[in-house]
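Support case: user asked for a sample of complex input and structure output to validate their parser. Sending the pair below.
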Amino acid sequence: MTVKQISVFVENKPGQLAEFTKLLQQNKIDIRALSIADTEDFGILRIIVDDSYKAVCVLKEAGYVCSVTPVLAVEIEDRPGSLVRVLDILGDNGVNLEYSYAFITRKRDSAYMIFRVADNDRAIEVLNQNGIKPICQGELSELFGE
Amino acid sequence: MKENYYQPEIECASREQIRAWQDERLVKTVRRVYDNVDYYRNLMKRKGVTPDDIQSVEDLHKLPFLTKDDLREAYPYGLLATPLSDCVRIQSTSGTTGRRVVAFYTQHDIDLWDDCCARAIVAAGGSKDDVVHVCYGYGLFTGGPGLNGGSHKVGSLTLPMSSGNTERQIQFMCDLGSTILCCTPSYAAYLAESICERGLRDQIKLKAGIFGAEAWSEEMRQDIQNKLGIKAYDIYGLTEISGPGVSFECSAQTGMHINEDHFIAEIINPVTGEVLPDGEKGELVFTSITKEAFPLLRYRTRDICVLTREKCSCGRTHVKMSKPMGRSDDMLIVKGVNVFPSQIETVLLNKGYPANYQIVVSREHNSDRLEVKVEMTPEMFSDALSQVSAREKELVEALKAMLGIYAEVKLVAPKSIARSEGKAVRIIDNRKLY
């Protein structure tokens, strides 16, 4: 019920993101979602890609420090108010969000939210109780490609 | 605690007695080198000092310093104080920079050197019933020959293993029941790991280790002691002065006793050359007063340490030196505080970071700024910014505790710190002070 996110350490200086994305392009890795958390000196890139195994191999080979984190991907209707509902469920049940970001897809008429929480199992449990099922890696793959 | 001495009458002599030996031997040595060695005579003349000016240790400060550059300039025979025909041995430094330095020994010099190493072995609990396993390198390097000679003096069974071939080291250790291990601390740590990995911990009979020739931390000592179930003793020395055994640790493990009947130690301010009182941190300077072939007067070791004359629980009366805390050649003064790269290295290693770092010092608005660049590692990385920042903050606090001043930490990409010929460029000083 989780999907794989790759987190990458990058220095905060000109050209870093361009260099990073060029590497993915050269290896034909498709980015579905991307978010950046930054400080003055460095940033943490978080990406969801079509082939996470290949991406990690390519990144390590190129000397990047990266890690794979299981995160929750929740499909929500692409209209006002639908995010509030999910956040309320998590908040009411004491699930703390570390960070979150969104992506949409052309295949379905939905938006997707990525949630990084401390306790995935607990979050899945309370979402399920409210009829929400986070998508798994397999379902995520279906969102890629033409 | 039972104390072990090799030469109790010397190791526990009164301070007055030690001073009397030093006065007599210093005066003789100065006279001898002035008469026999052109290089010394010229150095002393240039400073306007004659042997008559040196009547006791009190006068030591009048003599000129000697540096590694002098040894290179006088290479190979320029500082020899006896006829070459009286010499029986040459040893040499590892010579990572510039010309090698060679040191000469008469048979008497070797005997005294062996005595010094014997004192270290006995202090570590060695006796004729022990099996001393020496895996320092043999050859030009002084480590192997020094401990080998000391072990013979003690009457221990000596295993001249030399370095390398870990499988054979461990096999002999098990089969022949080695009880005292002599090697570099890093090799000891490696051996300890290999022994534990093979599940041979209960097959070895080691009780003590004598480790030196490179810097090692207290944490490393604990690690080696726990893994091997031994007591790990530090030993210090340098080829120029003789080799290992210039000073050695006793059971107190709180510094190394300098063999003051052979070597006079001083601590100086590395910048001004001024002699500092006991307890102050500075550069260690040695004068050898019993060497026949290659006596050195006021030789600057470049090692930074502290001397203490507090009474030692082991009963020895000879002054103790701390572990070297760094090298005067790479000491930085930031915001008026002495900063050694080795201090920063210790903090990084303790906190789980690699020792790949770079120190950048700059001056902004007339104020010094110290920045430590640290390479990110997979172990230290996290997808959560809060965790990475927390680790960074922890590092800043640990550096502050160690250095006494604030250092900014900058996490950089792996392998982004320039390496030249395998040796990293550690310090970048942008202040242009000189």
